[in-house]
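Blinded run. Sample ID left blank on purpose so nobody reads anything into the name before looking at the predicted structure. Input follows.
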Amino acid sequence: MKHSTLFIWFLLVFGCNREPKLTKFYPVPDFSLTDQSGQTVSLNDLKGKVWVADFIFTNCGGTCPVMTEKMRKLMDELAADIHMVSFSVDPVRDTPKALAAYAAEHGANSDRWLFLTGEKQVMVDICMNGFKLPLDEEVGTPAEPITHSTRFVLVDKQGEIRGYYAGTEEGEVKRLAADAKRLL
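Blinded prediction complete.
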């Protein structure tokens, strides 16, 4: 009996009940984009911050409004030092002015939530090559003419991708919130 008690104590003390470490997937590539206020934002501006990224467009009639609402809820629920970053996949229409209106419409706090745009090819490269997420402008529907990932991406203070989460699924968003807190 003493051996089993000692074994349980050992497991509790030495962390065998701890959650596994978060995987390090890829470093986010450097970028220089424009936010909703017209300011230039680079990866360096986000270093030292835990952040959640997604890819949306303001004229979307499909999943983007759902994802944006989930991001707003994350912003409201998570500590103030966890930031949100929404990258536009429709930079031709998503000017800083359009992004600012969209951010205001969705209750985004500009101190914590950036909406970024840039040249079209730069945005495609960031999405597909940087974050390793799909993007296709040829397969869409009238409501959602640009087919893109609905994944949220968790990025750590060093700019490393630490997790991918289904941005429209409540359980996945809760898991993301827990993982983001762990990175602080």
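Unblinding after everyone has recorded impressions. The chain has six helices and nine strands.
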